[in-house]
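So, can you check what follows?
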Amino acid sequence: MRKIAALLVVISLTSCGQGGKQNTNNVPAATAVNTPTTVTNVTPPVPVPADWKTYTKENYSIHYPPGWDVKEGPGVAKFTIYFSPDKACSNMGENVSLGVQDIGNESIDLDELAQSASTQFKTMLDNYSLLSHTKLTDGTGDYEQTVFSGEMSSQKLMYEQRYRVINGKIYILTLACPSEGWDVGQKTGEQIMSLFSVNP
């Protein structure tokens, strides 16, 4: 799990940005789930909208809306897709990022991976709150999904992460969004994350 910890730190920093402050007065706090839901659901395929762009790299691809901008990252932080190119995490808008880490033959349990992520974020975010934890299956295979909230640099943020292990690699997709825009941001962000695929 030591390798995984390094990945999670990088992903979280890529997702939420380091600069810019927002007015977070009168933003309703997220309600914590004392016992996160853990269920198994099969998610149906999501069609790719005709005007969306495709980003392909190495053995994976993802689709995203026009008006969003892709910036590649170093090392395990492969890319971040920003809602507004001029924001680039300053005065943060919603974004989706991917981290990939090679684990070789090491056996990783998805539930353990999600719990490790939760532990990491507790140390990185103020007022961290885990809202849900769900086990899901789609055309690419099994994955774990968590939704949580917290504060960083005086910004109230919401997150959704999806964890997969495929062919000896960990894939972590992270959606980050200001709390006050979560209802809209989550809808588009989940559509983007659902259009992520790993090629054999």
